[in-house]
Write a structure and sequence with these properties.
- 2 copies of one chain form a homodimer.
- The termini of chain A are far apart.
- Helix content of chain A is 56%, strand content 13%.
- Chain A has 104 residues and is α+β, with helices and mostly antiparallel strands.
- Chain A has one domain: Arc Repressor Mutant, subunit A (Orthogonal Bundle), CATH 1.10.10.10.
- The longest helix of chain A is centred in the N-terminal third of the chain and has 13 residues.
- Chain A has 5 helices and 3 strands; from the N terminus they run ααβααββα.
- The relative contact order of chain A is 0.15.
- In chain A, strand 2 and strand 3 form a beta hairpin.
- In chain A, strands 1-3-2 form a 3-stranded antiparallel beta sheet.
- The interface between A and B is large, with 39 and 39 residues.
- Chain A binds a DNA duplex (30 and 30 nucleotides) through helix 3 and helix 4.
DNA sequence: CCCCTTTATCGTAAAAATACGATGATAAAC
DNA sequence: GTTTATCATCGTATTTTTACGATAAAGGGG
């Protein structure tokens, strides 16, 4: 008995799928600005990010979740606040993948 | 008289906006597969790409347009077909940007 | 000229992403 | 215990993306 494949498979490796998810996460101006801000301001709080973005708090929180799900950032609860920072390992992995992408 | 700014500006530089558009273009499995295929098979035709993707021809053509608009690929008409290839300058630029991204 | 091949575009239906106010949840301050 | 501060999640409206069939456009082949 063969294992059933999904009807529409894009035939990407696990690494490629993860890379695609990261690309998608970074493919929105708000999230690009968030990672740029986190790069310049390591260890900052949700409210700080809300202050620099022209978006409501709920929307920023949603964008942060997308970046978290992509593994690009991690947030640790600090009392009543949440401290966010770039996941340096994930960022390093992302850069490596891009370097080797397109036959690099 | 001040120049009117858009109501919601994400305060990204032109380069960052271009980078974001490229990320978005690569943030879909079909398009990631297309660039991977083009990387392995330079100079191929639309039909070749249609053959390797689980999508209709119209949909693939649409995805190709997204990659063209992002500047990642370029297509030249060859008789009744269109020959696609990666834009190596754009790809190089993309890699450089990612290398220096996140304080690289 | 009439087909055939190849591809882009159009129109549109369905799905996903985006944005916001309202609400809840948790911890600190008083 | 009450209040305040901070943040995530819920519900939902709007917009965008995705996908497909149908159609048009354009270059050979007969």
């Amino acid at each position: 008995m063969e294992t059933q494949q999904p009807v529409k498979s894009y035939d990407l490796s696990a690494a490629e799928e993860r890379l695609t998810q990261m690309m998608k996460a970074l493919g929105h101006p708000a999230r690009m600005q968030i990672v740029r801000y986190l790069s310049a301001n390591p260890q900052c709080i949700t409210g700080d990010i809300v202050d620099v973005l022209p978006l409501a708090q709920a929307t920023v929180s949603q964008h942060l979740k997308v970046l978290r799900d992509a593994g690009l950032i991690c947030g640790t609860v600090e009392g009543t606040a949440t401290c966010y920072c770039l996941d340096i390992d994930a960022v390093a992995w992302f850069r490596e993948q891009v370097s080797s992408l397109f036959g690099g």
